[in-house]
Specification:
mainly alpha, 2 domains, about 65% helix
Length: about 100
């Protein structure tokens, strides 16, 4: 993908082409490895922060069912299917049925 982007040498409006076309004050662009590292950092950092935010949100909401109930309709256990309670997760990890 990086090689294709370099050959195209055009701004396609995506992050990869922006990185490939970026130059520092001396007019030097990023190496292929630097481009790859920047893209990986963006992808992984974005995924990790989103996952952490959602995990903590569901954890905190699980402690306050009255707040969770105000977020929207609860049809046939919809919320519990999305976010099991912390105690359910712990039981499943330990393999117990308490």
């Amino acid at each position: 993908m990086i090689a294709d982007g370099r050959r195209a040498n055009a701004d396609r409006g995506d992050v990869l082409s922006m990185l490939l076309l970026a130059k520092d004050d001396d007019g030097v662009g990023l190496t292929d490895r630097q481009v790859r590292d920047e893209v990986m950092t963006l992808l992984l950092a974005g995924h990790e922060t989103t996952a952490n935010a959602l995990t903590w949100t569901w954890y905190e909401l699980g402690k306050y069912p009255e707040v969770l109930a105000r977020l929207g309709p609860r049809r046939s256990g919809r919320w519990s299917a999305i976010a099991p309670s912390p105690s359910t997760i712990c039981r499943r990890c330990r393999g117990t049925s308490r």
